[in-house]
Amino acid sequence: MNGIGLILDAHRISDLARLASQAENHNFHSVWTTELYRTSFQQLSIAAGATKKIKLGTAVALAFIRSPFITAITSMDIDEISNGRLILGLGSGAKRTNEMWHGVEHGKPVVKIKECIHIIKNIVLKSHLNEDFVFKGKYFNINTKGYYRAFKPVRENIPVFLAGIGKQMTQASGEVADGYLGHVVCSKKYLSEITINSIKKGLDKSGRNKKDFTISSIITCAVSDDKKEAFEAARATIAFYATVRTYEPPFKLHGFENRCKKIRDAYFKKDIQTMISSVTDDMVDTFAVVGNADDCRKKIKQYKKYIDLPILSAPHYFIDFELVEIFQKNILEAFGK
C-alpha cells in the first residue's frame, strides 16, 4: 500500500463500489466515507463488498447522534463484512448541527467523546463473553445485563481514530484513541505547532508510545494542469468550512479571522459568490494542495513530515459534481501505484 487514503465522494450510491475498487487497484492504503448527505457506515458496506484488501474508514461517523452501543454493534458488522478492515473514525460534530438537526445534547464534547470511546471499545471487547458491562459517567449510564452477542467479533480491538481540531480534543485522541484524524482545514503549520504537541500530551498522559498511534489528516487536493480551475475549486471548499466556528483555530493561527467573518456574513446572506471570492490565494495555498500531479506529490510529501497517513479529498462544495469526479480521477492517477 502507498500510504495514502482517499475520501469517497460519490454522487450516486452505485458509484461508491467503483471508486473503492479503483482506489484498491491503484494501491491506496484506505478509502473513507463522510457523514453529511449519506451515512458513513452504509457507504462503507458498499465499499467493503467491492474490495478485498484496502482498509475502510469513517471520516467521520458522528459519535453523539447514535448510542455508543449501536455504534459498537455497527462497527462489528462492518468489520465482519470487510473481514477486519474497518478503521472507526469518530467525531463529536458541531454543536449547532448536533442540537438543531439531530436534537441531541452536545454537552462538553471532550468528556462525552471519551465516554463514547470507552463504551464502544468495551462492548466490542466483551459483548460475546456473556459478561455484563456497567458504566456510569457524566453523559452515559450503560448496563448490558441480559445482552449477549452470540458470535465473536472478527477483531476484539477495532482501531478508533478520533477527529479533532482544538487542543483538548486533539489531546484526547492521544489519551483514548488509536489514531488522530485531522480536519480538511489543516495546514502544515497547524500540524507542527498545535496538533503534534497536543497528541504528545495525550500519549504521555495515557502512558503510550507514538509507535502505537497513527496521525492522519484529511487534505483538500485538487490535481489539475489547469491551475486556475483547481484553485477556484479548492477556494470554494475552503469557503464552506470557514463558515463553521468549530473549525476556526487553523484560520485564526494564520491570521485569517477577518476573512472568515466576511465569509460567514456572506453565507448568512446566501451570497455564495462572495463567500468563494473572499477566500484568498494565500488561504488556498495554506489549506489545500493544488497543482499538477508532480506539484501535488511534492506537497503531500511535505505533509508526511508531520502525519503518517494523508487522506486526500477532492474539492466538492459549490462545484458541479462532474468536476468532482474529474478531480477524484486525477488523485487516483497522481498517487496510485
**Helicity range:** 40-55%
Shape: globular
Q: Terminal Cα separation, in Å?
A: 8 Å
What order do the helices and strands follow?
A: EHEHEEHEHHEEEHEHEHHHHHEHEH
Q: What is the number of E strands?
A: 12
What percentage of the residues does DSSP assign to strands (E)?
A: 15-25%
Structural class: alpha/beta
Describe what you observe in this structure.
With 337 residues, the chain is of the alpha/beta class. Strand 1 (5-7), helix 1 (13-25) and strand 2 (30-33) form a beta-alpha-beta unit. It contains 14 helices and twelve strands. It has a single domain (5-224, 289-335), classed as TIM Barrel, CATH 3.20.20.30. The model has no long low-confidence stretch (mean pLDDT 96). It is globular, with a radius of gyration of 20 Å. Helix content is 48%, strand content 16%. Helix 2 packs parallel to helix 3, helix 6 packs across helix 7 (188-206) and helix 8 (227-241) crosses helix 12. The strands form two sheets. The chain has an eight-stranded parallel barrel, surrounded by eight helices. Strands 6-7 form a two-stranded antiparallel ribbon.
